[in-house]
Design brief:
heterodimer, A: alpha/beta, Helicase, Ruva Protein, domain 3, two-stranded antiparallel sheet, 8 helices, B: alpha+beta, OB fold (Dihydrolipoamide Acetyltransferase, E2P), de novo design (two linked rop proteins), 2 domains, three-stranded antiparallel β-sheet, binds zinc ion
Chain lengths: ~200, ~230
Amino acid sequence: MNKDLLLELINALTILPGVGKKSAQRMALYLLDKNKDGARILANTLADAVDNIQRCSSCRMLTSNEVCSVCDDNSRDDLSICVVENPSDVLAIESTGGYRGKYFVLMGRLSPIDGIGPEDIGIDDLLKLIESKSVKEIILATSSTVEGDATAIYIKDHVKTAKVSRISYGIPIGGELEYVDGTTIARAIEGRIEVNVD
Amino acid sequence: MSQSNSDECFLLHQRSYGETSLIIDVFTKKDGKISLIAKGAKKPKSKFFGYLVPFHKLSINYSGRSELKTLTNIDRNLMHSKSTFNKTSYSLLYVNELLIKLLPKNAQQEDLFLLYEKLLSDINLNENLELTLRRFELDMLDTMGYGFDYEYDINNNEPIDVDSSYRFVSERGFRKSKNATFLGKDIINLKNRNLKDVPLKELKEITKKAITFCLDGNDLASRKIFKAMKK
Ligand SMILES: [Zn+2]
């Protein structure tokens, strides 16, 4: 039997998050029937990205260069490192435009039950980076799960020379208290800050 | 309509399922360890969001007959709860790993459930953390049927002699041994849970050996992380 490329493409597309059989069919037909040029660009870019994207040698972010664009940017503060779990967290913080330091991407978080220890999330690399660049401030932006907490405490415990803080968790802007879950409210109260009028 | 169950439980572990859902392993009072799917739980607007936290007693409803049941409702008592993580929480992560690896699925373990509940309240009392953990481990081994014989020498069935020295043999108990440092009176203290009077080093060795035996010789990841913390 000859292989059917159309069916193969549809199957291949279903590996994308949120894409089921139906959407995959629609995508495949659109690419092959309505937008062949676009499809060719997509195919080439994808192959190129898969072959050439690796981790930044400094912060472990995904990049096609030796170091990523954030690490390469001289105008950014070398002495401040924001530690996140995933590349998507870097993109989320970058989209706010409010942070001008650098990052370190753990690519996971401590999770003993899943057998993920400090060596699996590059803690040694982070500690070396802090030492070699004499980093002054570490901002921990790990998730507010028990594993994210465990990761934060572990890093705090091992960093001796820099100031370590953790991003605060709390009530979403514009949110009414009565719709916020109890754990978040409890955290927000613990992480309260003084009101400054000036 | 499938049947609906209500129970109390503690969350032991969670993992992602698809984009927005979670599969959770919980330790329930009535049915022991079970797996549930919490549909959409990763979305901030989900009614489960923020409730799936370990170390707090949760009231849940779930339905389904298959191995993987569906979480339908969740609530918890927020009183007396500390939401910040501290070094003590690492010990609790260790206990959770232990329960995940030792508990059989869908088998009631109400005594152990009550022990775990007690551990979570004891651990906040700032008593000696290490002794609290060792006591839990010994009680856990007993309730799961892995307890040892505290009364008789396992070699010759003679009653334990207060002044003689003994060596611990995994899973089973103690046998007389000339060069051992563990005494008969220590065994009696162990049995009566007078752990303050048991030499700490031996106490640790015995529980570790017994638990490693139950785990078929495997070490626990959290034990290694815990060790790295204390440096
Ligand atoms: Zn970088």
